[in-house]
Fold:
Amino acid sequence: MIFSVPRRMATAAAIAVAGLLAATAPAALAAPTAVSAATPPDIPVANVKAHLSQLQTIASNNSGNRAHGRPGYKASIDYVKAKLDAAGFTTSLQTFTSSGSTGYNLIADWPGGDPNSVLMAGAHLDSVTSGPGINDNGSGSAAILETALAVSRAQLQPTKHLRFGWWGAEELGLIGSKYYVNNLSSTERGKFAGYLNFDMIGSPNPGYFVYDDDPTIEQTFKDYYAGLGVPTEIETEGDGRSDHASFKNVGVPVGGLFTGASRTKSSSQAQKWGGTAGQAFDRCYHSSCDTTSNINDTALDRNSDAVAYAIWTLGTATTPPPGSSFENTTDVAIPDSPGAAVTSDILVTGVPGNAPATTKVDVNIIHTYRGDLVIDLVAPDGSTYRLKNSSWDSGDNVIATYTVNASSEVANGTWKLRVQDVASWDTGYINSWKITF
Ligand code: TRP
Ligand code: ZN
Ligand code: CA
Structure:
């Protein structure tokens, strides 16, 4: 089983101090208001696979498919709905007509959270007529089902309102998800904080692809994979080819994961991910062999855990008020020149969007000759901002506030203060530093 360590655990010294508290007490003494989330669970891949076996059985008992308008589709809906009802979700079945047959979307709401800030995860539940559709898209359907059941097991109390959706007739052109968004008023559409799509996440020769859409959602998945040490690539096998397109078209921030369909895995991809170069990510895409044998368990396990990581991280995030500060007070020794640069990390979470043009960086360095020091701020994506150059600046210590235009940087992620001593003799240490948005 794969367990992801949330990055905030990697920097326990980074303490978030709400700006409003800092106004009434010195920041270092203010009661730390941790911007914290509940720890995401490890989703048992055996449970996900058990759902896939049930979907396989449904297909086998219904002419080998679970396609729109066929009995295997409705049986799939009934299976998922019964699990959710038993777990305390409020479910509703939305019906529509396509190609002369009745189609169904299943919507499941977890009671609670901010009704004006909805986080939704979705997957299409229909297969093509030519096969049982276990990777496409039993995989995404089962992963979000098991994540929903984990929400219930944890009795999670998210800040956002959580909703899960299983779409009908995706294979006929995103019909079910389009029907769903078309029936929302613009007010209701505006309440979506985000939509996460999972379509084909257990491909037998997998790649690890992240949709390049909303930056916060994208970063959340990248953070999860960075924690595993597994490289990802941006999804390019047909943007708009799944249900997230329906949401994106009406302005909802979207993201998602994908392990590849009929495209061929390159040799460099096989080197970093394993599997077989020169072969499709899914040789059984839209075929009768898309059965329970057509699943890579490691990919299914990682991506199921990634679904839960995103739901927990995004769904329980609190939004700090503007002016919130994040601080690291752990001392870091700065070796004398010639020595390597040293860094001190601050993990920022829960700040929506980009950093402001007036991002403030408070630096407190104890040093016997400040002129020796070169100081940079490093953004989560690695961009650097020079705060101070070395100089013939007599005097000790750097106790200063720098204003940085960091407006091109996503605020959430690990920021670093990087300090290098470039002249010999004097030494010192980073005492503390703080970033304020
Ligand atoms: N269900 C999609 C389809 O049949 C599969 C797919 C292809 C896909 N390319 C994608 C899903 C990219 C997500 C992202 O077309
Ligand atoms: Zn699909
Ligand atoms: Ca020195």
Notes: The two ends are 37 Å apart (CA to CA). The longest strand covers residues 114-124. The first helix runs from residue 19 to 22.
